[in-house]
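tokens incoming
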């Protein structure tokens, strides 16, 4: 097809290059072709406002990924909910308290298969895949970070906080996050710059700035290193002694972050979790108006295995002041799993 020189003036050359890049991200040929057609001004008979609307729709290049992810998450959630009605076969991974079920593995395979079929060039970091020896490396390319069942121990006991969590990153930044709280039937979604939602309704953090009026979430469990376990328990005592309204341990990192995002809790801190525990919820908290920082109060690092999320910077920093930090490794360190 020959494109006349006069058509190229219809669009800024830098936007043209960007749109061609976006087209290259699509594995759906028709979408890629439409994107290129817009770039060269083929839709030249439209008003400039209509052209801009079309361009804006196409330049939001990850919205289609998010829409597909919501559909896949619904399928995964259905499997989890059905499994809760049956006997659950439980296996151990690294310790008697580190559990995995056939459902964890089945759900992760479903998610990766359904996404890879549509986006074969994208990368994946999945909890069960990493446990089986796959690398945990966050690249600049489009990357899906998946926890098929966040709260496996809850799932085994049918304790009501069980979720499917998926975060999507580009250039190592979270573009969107989806968390489905299966037993509550709550679908949390957040797209960078477009807000956070629960079952389609907007959600916001509480905005609480007074730590003494805050409900704080964390998690505790037996640690292999006795000193680490002692630090976890001492940290809980320090937070309680601030004082705060209370400390709760719901058992699912992704759900904990959703609870902060919707204002049901005011903060959540944790050391020793993984990128798949945090990726989906990170988008929700920030888009709901909250903050996410390192356990020290510094910038958040998705691969650092630690975080504080809170309703306000003031609450986050106050928690950071109280906590004793212990080494918990990194997700992207060799042999870290």
């Amino acid at each position: 097809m020959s494109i006349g020189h006069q058509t190229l003036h219809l669009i800024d050359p830098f936007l043209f290059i960007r749109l061609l890049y976006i087209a290259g991200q699509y594995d759906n040929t028709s979408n890629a072709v439409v994107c290129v057609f817009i770039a060269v001004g083929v839709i030249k008979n439209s008003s400039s406002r209509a052209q801009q609307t079309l361009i804006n729709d196409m330049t939001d290049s990850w919205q289609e990924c998010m829409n597909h992810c919501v559909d896949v998450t619904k399928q995964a959630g259905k499997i989890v909910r059905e499994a809760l009605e049956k006997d659950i076969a439980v296996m151990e991974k690294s310790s008697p308290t580190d559990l995995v079920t056939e459902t964890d593995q089945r759900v992760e395979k479903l998610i990766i298969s359904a996404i890879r079929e549509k986006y074969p060039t994208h990368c994946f970091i999945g909890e069960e895949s990493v446990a089986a020896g796959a690398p945990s490396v966050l690249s600049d390319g489009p990357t899906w970070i998946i926890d098929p069942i966040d709260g496996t121990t809850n799932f085994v006991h049918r304790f009501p906080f069980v979720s499917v969590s998926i975060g999507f990153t580009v250039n190592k930044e979270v573009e969107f996050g989806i968390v489905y709280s299966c037993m509550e039937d709550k679908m949390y979604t957040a797209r960078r710059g477009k807000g956070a939602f629960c079952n389609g309704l907007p959600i916001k953090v509480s905005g609480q700035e007074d730590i003494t009026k805050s409900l704080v979430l964390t998690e505790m469990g037996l640690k292999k290193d006795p000193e680490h376990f002692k630090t976890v328990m001492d940290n809980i005592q320090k937070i309680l002694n601030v004082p705060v309204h209370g400390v709760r341990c719901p058992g699912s990192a992704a759900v904990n972050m959703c609870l902060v995002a919707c204002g049901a809790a005011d903060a959540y801190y944790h050391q020793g979790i993984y990128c798949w525990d945090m990726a989906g919820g990170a988008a929700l908290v920030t888009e709901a108006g909250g903050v996410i920082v390192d356990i020290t109060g510094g910038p958040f690092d998705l691969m650092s295995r630690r975080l504080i999320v809170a309703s306000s910077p003031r609450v986050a920093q106050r928690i950071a002041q109280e906590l004793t930090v212990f080494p918990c490794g990194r997700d992207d360190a060799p042999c870290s799993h």
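note: The two ends are 52 Å apart (CA to CA).
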